[in-house]
Amino acid sequence: MKISGSGTLSKMNIEDTIVSSGSVKMDGDIECLGFRSSGSARGEGNLTVHGDFKSSGSFNLRGALHGDGNVKSSGSATIEKEIKVNGALENSGSLRVGNGIEAIQGIRFSGSTRVNGGLSSEETIEIDGSTTVKGDIKATKVLIGIQTNLSGKKSNKHPYKVFGNIFATDDLELIYTFVEKDVRGRNVKIGKKTEISGNVYYIDTIEVDAKATLAHEPIQISEISENKLDK
Questions:
Q1: For residue 110, is it within any domain?
Q2: Residue 172: inside a domain
Q3: Number of folded domains in the chain?
Q4: Is the pTM of this model over 0.85?
């Protein structure tokens, strides 16, 4: 289904990919095989995509976004409820999510992102764009700020803020990051200008930059248990 002008979609289940380059309004829940929008799209309900979702324009959804494929956002997007997808999620634009993101195959932020409700993945979560997360981050690997070059810039603010715990079953690396609670990982690197208000737990290796600020000395543990994260 192609929309090149202005159109309205009522509640439907369509065995097709919705492709919009104009202005589309979605009334009620929409279920489709794929979704691509390069214009303006606004939805009042939930959107379920049995394939890939891609938005390079303006996208505003009052419900949740669920998908079987990948999500790629390079424009301005607001999802008032949660995002849950079986693929990977990538944001290089401006993304606002009201109730958390779960992307099984990985999460990558290089734009501006604000998430309430936390991030979760069975693969790698990599954050390099200005990001605020109000909730826990849980993944196999968590890499925050490692591709960012702030040398020469004078700023007292952290471009990456996590108001929760960070839980990585493998590698955990943080630079220019504020974490309100605990961090846990197998191999942990705390880079410059990072501030951890909670505890730092590691299994195998720990590296702490001289310009990092830790509220407590790092603690070596024998195993990582998500259930032991402080709430």
A1: yes
A2: yes
A3: 1
A4: yes
